[in-house]
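Input record (one chain):
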Amino acid sequence: MTKTNEISGVDAAGRADPLPPLVPRAPGSRFGRKHSGSLFAVVSGLVALLCLLPMFAVAIAAVTGGTDTVAHLVDTVLLRYTGTTLFLVLLVAAGTGCVGVGAAWLVTMTRFPGVRWLEVVLVLPLAFPAYVLAYAYTFILDHPGIVQTTLRDVTGWGPRDYWFPEIRSVGGAALMLVLVLYPYVYLLARAAFVQQSAGAFLAARALGQTSLQAFWRVSLPMARPAIASGMLLAVMETIADFGTVSYFGVQTFATGIYTSWFSMADRAAAAQLALGLLGFALALALAERISRGQARYHQAGKQHAKMPPTDLRGWKSAAAFALCALPVLLGFLLPVVILVDMGFESEQDIFTRRYLGFLQNSVTLATTAALLTVGAAVCLGFHQRLRPGRASAFAGYVARLGYAVPGGVIAVGLMVPFAAFDNALDAWMRANFEIKTGLLVTGSIWLLVMAYMVRFLAAALGAHEGGQATVHHNMDAAARSLGQGPIGMLRRVHLPILTPSLMTALLIVFVDVMKELPATLIMRPFNYDTLAVQAYRLASDERLEGAAVPSLVIMLAGLLPVLLICRQVRRSG
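The corresponding structure, as predicted from the sequence alone:
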């Protein structure tokens, strides 16, 4: 046998030992590794508890609160809240499904002039919050807007001589939401169509089915899970929307929560309405999961032949281009032109001290929330990798529930318990030390940042897990063999590889916080306004030209992650 030098790892012949000895560990290293792993478990548990707190708090406040206001709402507007919310959800689900699936099928399965360009730009409307689109279209479509004014000038009609669709309606709100939310369905449906094999589709054609029949009976059912997921995201955003429905005067659960909290000053009623909205959101997610069941499909055969695209010519080519370009025109190009024109006509200057303060507040909140949210996502994801099991899986599942909870519900769910804590602490300090503590937590931006983290943690987790899937478990084993504990493994192995995914997660959360309105309106400290709040305030006062300036800044911030998505779409095409 060859004798090996235990210090240098070189044998007697001068050859390097293929398996050099492990680095000796310090006596306390195992203790440190054990407790660093426990640190991730503790942080994950705290994050999961924080995500559950709003739901439990809303349920407790709803059950223990008085029912006088809710009884009045039941007799007056609760039925209207329910019916309007359901009708709006149905309209948005149908609209996003038709636009998203239709556009995805056309750009994936057909070829016509401009298809490669449309394949990318169909994502651009995702940069707009729906309430910004509402401001832009109200400016041109309302009675004093340029469209109706021109119509009256050309025809000579009076205000009561013609009928024009009312933009401030349930249908108008649904249109705004469809135009900004259809990219969710488009992206997932497009990915599903790209991954489908041509075998089943061509078999259907060989059995006498037309292209449209094969699409309905073969391609669409196989893409159903992806389409349902995209529609569910759009529906969740719809029931969470406050800015659009509030500005259009559409009474939904979201506006009812805000009215009960501020106009009626009844937190119990707000909690009871929030509980109803929470139950509605969770029921939608559960219904989608149950309807999907255990359905699976597999490609028959080992070959994965891509679907051959169909060349369109003549009027079919023009129709396909028009159908794909219309959502981009209405959801991005036209609103940008309108907002820029409105901004030039306004007296708002983004470079004034006041507006720079709004911008600073928005950036501060968004940056802080993005860092804390991504940090929490890293702890949760790494804990699941270190200790896979029911506890870590449950923590990850709970953390994802926040995306299904509207911002208004999270705001009420955090304000109620922390306001009670602040009041109890203030009373105790006054009784024992004659010191007034005031609102330590409720009156700070930290509670608002916690609400953002609960709301957008699912998005950060998705981006983190996508990057973590590229880190092979052999890398973890190699790091352990070299004496690295969990923290060292995370810092030296995982984080360098995950940097692109984490930067994407930071950007997504940053932009989502910039656009978030209901939680910010309810929870912001006094005299601490953001660009979204300023735009909402100006639009509520019918100063739409002024609302265009902060709206454009919010849209420009939203373009950053959308451009990243466009880049990925181009690469995958």
